[in-house]
Structure formats: structure tokens, C-alpha cells
């Protein structure tokens, strides 16, 4: 059975949305339902999955019945998934398996996060910190620090510089300029990144993804052609875990679960990284995109920055990464992030991505990770 | 058991519930056991991968944490920057902090005879000392001067916002220029210096800012609307910065001297000065060295933050407020 994505939607990601969390969620549900080419009735939706990280941001819980009521089929079933920043990817993994197993024909996945209610980024970091290893929480290590530990070890091991990391931010902001859904559409230079204040040395403000409000959705189906002539097929999804504690890992410079999840996705799909034309990866911090290149097999160990310098992952390169602008420029409304990656690849593989359309994109890959790679979902799509 | 620091980061953004800056590291012992550790911010700028140390357990109200304490105690000279340091109270503070072992940066408008004398006295104590020309009312001048201090002495641990001027007259005769000139030097100057210096203090693990206010800022004084307003303003600045900068390990304290035996105080008409001294429980002028000793105490006593300490021989409690 070839399971396909038949519709997708995303709100504009915003640094501070006027809309409340349930309004974002409602927009995503209604937008996704009406995005299906041949139309889809609420009666056709068997299952809804809501991806959301923390009710401490939005103040709401128990959203599945709300989404079911918006869909309009009272017998539909639903649940919420939470795997930190990989909640969206996890929702895809669950939805895909529900359809593959025959438990559902059509599944609606929606993800949302309303983060800007928190007074400052410090409080946001406190909420996020809850997704770490217990020892990391108690010691007071926010995610920026955990990624900084990885970055410092990586820089020591491979001689990579802060300027190398800055290249990721510059690239993704350049890409975000072409995306009307991106939260921060502003070109930045290496100098801008280097001048931005350190949050947790050696990572700076501009090495970090954006605190964002937003929602996204997609529908997957066991009978995709019934709903559209141009579905995007899900060829394989892998989900893998690593120890949540950065300090426990044998090699701190690896995000091992990315490699494991991608191996699973490639094995199921009978594809390899060579087949992929466009990628959306989880650039929560600049360092994570460089390591993702290596774990996915785009680059050798320590050569992430090298292939970026060579232009391979630029919008015009051989393997464009994050044409949407990524978490860095498009934004990172946590529960929506992985869901938005699916939406982006749906548009890319259907040739509907507008100014940011990657030429002749036939196969796409998303890598969505939670925590410091404690949970990773990698999915491969084809048109 | 010896532990080795595998990797580390310096966190400059205070996160609740700790609301403090510190370094975080991954340490490994000889058996290969690894731990995530917290490291005191006083080691900012001195950590390196591979450094050896002890890991001790420490109880906190949020849970028991592991703390890494480097074995190598790297001695870094502490540096004090005193604005208006060439003469008067500033000169005495420079000398007193030199006696406490601080390297000294004397900032003033120009390198004149008095600046030279203070610099020589400080150097004779045996510490490093430099003079930097800074016009505190000018942001660019402050940035340039502080950069010079950093390049010559490496850091700033103590900032004493002491630079001040008077342009006394009764309200009806006070020109807008005189009002603005005093505010610009006495209050805006402290703002510029605090803003520029604190960003470096954050990176080096904290420090102390002492704002030299005045009893005039507490009780007012006839003929000194501009000066009193500037010195009251310094108190508000102190209270606010003490709250804002505490998470970064920066304490901010104001002192409110009464009449100190300096050229500035002696310029006050004798009749007014006599009138004030008559009201003082201890009717004499304060010695600049006495003020300097208070500043040294503030620097050394880590419990002092966000307070205004009068040093006035009891004048404040005797002064009628109206």
C-alpha cells in the first residue's frame, strides 16, 4: 500500500501572533481540510492527531475532541502526541502506521504552538528545559547550552569555527526571504551573526532558531488518488531515540538518532540520500544542521561546513536544505514544526512552492528532532 | 577521583528557576563515568577542554547538582575603573582599591597634574595602573575608553561611577544648559558607563558597580536642582540595575556622601556649608579616604546590593526635608 499526503496547510509563522492557540489550531484544521484538490468530507476522516509540545505555552489541553468537532465527524478518534520538538514528526509516524496497519483510511494531523505568551525568552527556555535529561534539568542546562556543549566539542574535534556555524544562519535566512510563510524574512550576513550576543558561548542569538507562533496540518490517505491526482507518497518513515542526556553519549559530536532514523527510512523506502532532491532538516541551532548533513550521509564526519561552503546545500545547490528558511528563518512553533516540514515537502514535490520551488524536485526528506536528538523522525517522500 | 572537562559552555542568559549565569560542562572520570556539571561563573574565560578538577555534589532547593571545581586556580588580576578618578573622592577610591590589590584604570577628562599624581600614587602601591581619557557624557568616548582599559588591563571587575560636576543656582536663574550639563555628566554618564562595562562583566562572570550619589540626592538642596536631580536619578538607576544585573553576578550599590573635603564641596558658599555643618551631629567635613574605605567595603562584601548607603556623619537624619 502506498500511503500518500493529499492535502496540507500552514498558517504564517509569526514571532507574535494576534491569534490565540485554539484559533491557530482551527485555522490549520480548516485550511488543511479545504486544501485537498478533489475535496474531502469530514466524514472521511477516521483519526486526528494533534502535535503540541507544552500546554505551559498555550494554556490548553485535551485538544483532540476539539479537532474532531471541527472535522465534523463525531465518530472520528483522536489523540495528542508529544515528543518535544519532534512531536510533528512523531505525529506523522503514528498517522502513517495507523493507515498502513488498516486502522484508519484517512488521518488528519495538525500541529500548533503559541509560544509568545511567555514574558521573556528566559521563561520559554525554562519550559523547553523540561524536555532534557533529569540531570540536565536539575543542573540548569537550557537547550541552547546543551547544543553549545555539542558545538564546543565539535569545534574542538574538527577545527570548525563560529563563522562556519554562521553560514547556516545566513543560508537559511536567504532562503526564508522567498517564503511568505516565514516569521523572519530578513537577509543577514556572517558579520550580523558574529556581532549578535552570545546566549551560551559559543552559540549566539543568531545561531538559534526563532520563538514562534504557528500551526500546520496535513492529511494522509490509504487511497490518495481518490482525493488528488498528484499526491505526495510517503516512502518511508524512521523513528529513533538516543539517550536524552548529551553527557551520556559515547560521542558527543554525533546526533546518532538522526543516522538511525534515516537508515530506517531509507531501508523501508529502498532509497538513499543520493535519490533525495530537497531536504527540510531541524536547524534548531546552526550546529544541528551541520551535524544533520553528516548523520544523513550528505557529508563525511566533520565535513558539514565544507559542503555548505561548496554550495551543495544552498537553494541553488545539488541538495538544497531548508528552502523554506528552516527553523532559523521560517520559525519553530514546536508542535507545528515537523508538521510544517511535511507541508513544505508536499508543496515542493508538487511544484507548488512558488519562489522557493526547488527545480525538478521529485524526492524529499525531512528530519525532525526533539531535545538534543533524543527523538528523531526522518521521512522520505516522492511525488 | 580526578575528573576531566570534556566540553563546556558559558551560559550568559539567566534561566528560571536559577536566574543566574554559570558555566555548564560535561566531565569524565578515570573510569569513564560522565556527568553534567555546573561551574561557577568566576571561571568564565578561564575554562578549557581537558582541564582537570573535582566534582562535588551540592544541595540546592531545586535538587542536588554536581559542581566541577577546576584544580588549577588561575590567578587573574582584578581591575577597577573609576570615573572622575583623577582628583577628589575618585582619587581616594583609586588609591584605596589599589591597596586592596586591584589594578586601576583612572578615567577623567584629561591627563593633568592631578591625574598624574593619582596615577603615580597608585603605581607606587605596586599595582598596574593606567589613565584613560573619557568624557562620560559621550557614549562613543565611553566605548572607546572602556575598550582601551580592556586592551590594557584585560577586564573590569569594579566600576565606580564617580564623575560629577556642579552648576549651582536657584531654579529661576538656572539655565537649561546648566540643567542638562549636570544631568548629562552625573546621570547619563553613569548610564553610558554601566551599559558598556556591564556587557563585559557578564562575559567575565560578574562585578560590582558603585554609583557615587549624594545626600543631596536623598534630601535635596537649595540651589542644586540639577545636581540633586542627577544624584536622585543615580539612586533609581542603582535600584533598577541591581535588579536587572543580579542574575549576571553584578551587584550595584550607591553611596550618598555628605560634605566631603574636596574642591567641589569647598566651592559651596561658606555660609551654606556652615549652616549644614551646624545641623550635623558630627559637625565636620568627611575625608575622601573615609568614603573610599566604604567603597572598598562594598566591593568586598558580597551581600550588599541595591542599597543606598549614606556616609554623612548623621547629617541625613538631622536635615529638615522642607
Explain what this protein looks like in three dimensions:
The complex is a heterodimer of chains A (383) and B (322). Helix content of chain A is 38%, strand content 19%. By secondary structure, chain A is α/β, with parallel strands linked by helices. In chain A, strands 3-2-4-7-1-8-11-10-9 form a nine-stranded mixed beta sheet, with helices on both faces. Chain B is an alpha/beta fold. Chain B folds into two domains: 3-70, no CATH class; 79-318, Rossmann fold. Chain B is built from ten helices and twelve strands. In chain B, the strands form two sheets. A seven-stranded parallel beta sheet of chain B has the order 8-7-6-9-10-11-12, sandwiched between helices. A five-stranded antiparallel beta sheet of chain B has the order 3-2-1-4-5, with no helix packed on it. In chain B, helix 1 crosses helix 9 (288-300). The interface between A and B is medium-sized, with 35 and 31 residues.
Question: What attributes does this structure have?
Answer:
heterodimer; A: 383 residues; alpha/beta; Peroxisomal Thiolase, Chain A, domain 1; nine-stranded mixed β-sheet; two-stranded antiparallel ribbon; 38% helix; globular; B: 322 residues; Rossmann fold; 2 domains; seven-stranded parallel β-sheet; five-stranded antiparallel β-sheet; 10 helices; 12 strands; 39% helix; elongated
Amino acid at each position: 500500500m502506498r500511503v500518500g499526503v493529499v492535502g496540507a496547510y500552514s498558517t504564517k509563522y509569526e514571532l507574535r501572533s494576534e491569534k490565540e492557540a485554539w484559533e491557530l489550531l482551527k485555522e490549520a484544521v480548516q485550511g488543511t481540510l479545504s486544501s485537498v484538490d478533489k475535496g474531502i468530507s469530514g466524514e472521511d476522516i477516521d483519526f486526528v492527531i494533534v502535535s503540541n509540545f507544552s500546554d505551559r505555552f498555550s494554556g490548553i489541553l485535551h485538544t483532540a475532541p476539539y479537532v474532531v468537532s471541527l472535522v465534523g465527524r463525531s465518530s472520528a478518534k483522536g489523540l495528542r502526541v508529544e515528543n518535544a520538538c519532534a512531536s510533528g514528526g512523531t505525529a506523522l509516524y503514528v498517522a502513517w502506521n495507523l493507515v498502513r496497519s488498516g486502522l484508519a483510511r484517512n488521518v488528519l494531523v495538525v500541529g500548533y504552538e503559541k509560544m509568545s505568551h511567555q514574558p521573556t525568552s528566559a521563561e520559554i527556555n525554562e519550559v523547553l528545559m523540561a524536555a532534557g535529561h533529569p540531570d540536565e534539568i536539575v543542573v540548569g542546562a537550557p537547550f541552547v547550552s546543551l547544543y553549545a556543549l555539542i558545538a564546543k566539542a565539535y569545534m574542538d574535534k574538527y577545527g570548525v569555527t563560529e563563522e562556519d556555524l554562521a553560514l547556516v544562519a545566513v543560508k537559511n535566512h536567504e532562503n526564508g526571504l522567498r517564503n511568505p510563510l516565514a516569521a523572519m524574512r530578513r537577509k543577514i550576513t556572517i558579520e550580523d551573526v558574529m556581532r549578535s550576543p552570545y546566549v551560551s558561548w559559543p552559540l549566539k542569538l543568531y545561531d538559534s532558531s526563532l520563538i514562534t507562533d504557528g500551526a500546520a496540518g496535513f492529511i494522509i490517505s490509504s487511497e490518495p488518488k481518490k482525493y488528488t491526482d498528484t499526491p505526495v507518497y510517503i516512502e518511508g518513515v524512521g523513528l529513533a531515540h538516543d539517550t536524552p542526556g548529551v553527557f551520556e553519549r559515547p560521542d558527543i559530536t554525533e546526533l546518532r538518532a538522526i543516522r538511525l532514523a534515516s537508515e530506517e527510512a531509507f531501508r523501508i523506502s529502498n532509497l538513499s540520500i543520493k535519490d533525495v532532491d530537497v531536504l527540510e532538516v531541524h536547524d534548531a541551532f546552526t550546529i544541528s544542521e551541520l551535524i544533520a548533513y553528516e548523520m544523513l550521509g550528505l557529508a563525511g564526519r566533520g565535513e558539514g561546513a565544507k559542503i555548505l561552503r561548496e554550495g551543495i546545500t544552498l537553494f541553488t545547490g545539488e541538495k538544497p536544505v531548508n528552502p523554506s528558511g528552516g527553523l532559523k528563518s521560517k520559525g519553530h512553533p514546536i508542535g507545528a514544526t515537523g508538521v510544517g516540514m511535511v507541508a513544505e515537502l508536499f508543496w515542493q514535490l508538487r511544484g507548488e512552492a512558488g519562489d522557493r520551488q526547488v527545480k525538478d524536485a521529485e524526492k524529499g526528506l525531512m528530519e525532525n528532532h526533539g531535545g538534543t536528538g533524543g527523538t528523531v523522525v526522518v521521512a522520505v517522500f516522492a511525488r | 577521583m580526578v575528573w576531566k572537562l570534556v566540553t563546556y559552555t558559558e551560559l550568559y542568559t539567566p534561566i528560571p528557576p536559577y536566574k543566574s549565569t554559570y558555566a555548564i560542562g560535561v566531565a569524565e572520570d578515570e573510569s569513564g563515568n560522565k556527568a553534567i556539571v555546573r561551574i561557577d561563573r568566576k571561571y568564565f574565560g578561564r575554562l578549557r577542554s581537558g582541564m582537570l578538577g573535582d566534582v562535588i555534589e551540592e544541595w540546592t532547593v531545586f535538587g542536588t547538582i554536581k559542581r566541577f571545581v577546576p584544580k588549577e586556580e588561575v590567578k587573574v588580576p582584578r581591575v577597577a575603573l573609576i570615573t572622575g578618578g583623577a582628583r577628589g573622592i575618585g582619587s581616594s577610591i583609586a588609591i584605596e582599591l589599589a591597596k586592596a590589590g586591584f589594578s586601576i584604570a583612572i578615567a577623567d577628562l584629561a591627563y593633568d597634574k592631578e591625574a598624574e599624581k593619582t596615577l603615580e600614587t597608585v603605581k607606587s602601591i605596586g599595582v598596574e595602573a593606567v589613565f584613560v581619557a573619557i568624557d562620560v557624557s559621550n557614549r562613543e568616548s565611553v566605548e572607546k575608553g572602556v575598550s582601551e582599559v580592556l586592551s590594557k588591563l584585560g577586564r573590569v571587575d569594579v566600576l565606580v561611577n564617580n564623575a560629577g560636576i556642579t552648576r549651582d543656582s536657584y531654579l529661576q536663574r538656572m539655565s537649561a544648559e546648566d540643567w542638562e550639563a549636570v544631568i548629562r555628566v552625573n546621570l547619563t554618564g553613569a548610564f553610558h558607563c554601566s551599559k558598556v562595562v556591564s556587557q563585559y562583566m557578564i562575559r567575565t562572570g560578574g562585578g560590582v558597580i558603585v554609583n557615587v550619589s549624594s545626600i543631596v540626592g536623598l534630601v535635596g538642596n537649595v540651589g542644586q536642582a540639577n545636581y540633586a536631580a542627577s544624584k536622585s536619578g543615580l539612586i533609581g538607576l542603582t535600584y533598577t540595575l541591581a535588579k536587572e544585573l543580579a542574575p549576571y553576578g553584578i551587584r550595584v550599590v550607591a553611596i550618598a556622601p555628605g560634605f566631603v573635603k574636596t574642591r567641589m564641596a569647598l566651592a559651596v558658599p561658606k555660609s551654606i556649608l556652615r549652616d549644614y555643618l551646624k545641623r550635623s551631629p558630627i559637625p565636620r567635613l568627611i575625608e575622601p579616604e573615609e568614603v573610599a574605605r566604604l567603597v572598598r567595603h562594598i566591593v568586598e562584601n558580597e551581600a550588599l546590593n541595591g542599597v543606598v548607603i549614606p556616609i554623612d556623619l548623621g547629617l541625613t537624619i538631622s536635615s529638615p526635608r522642607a
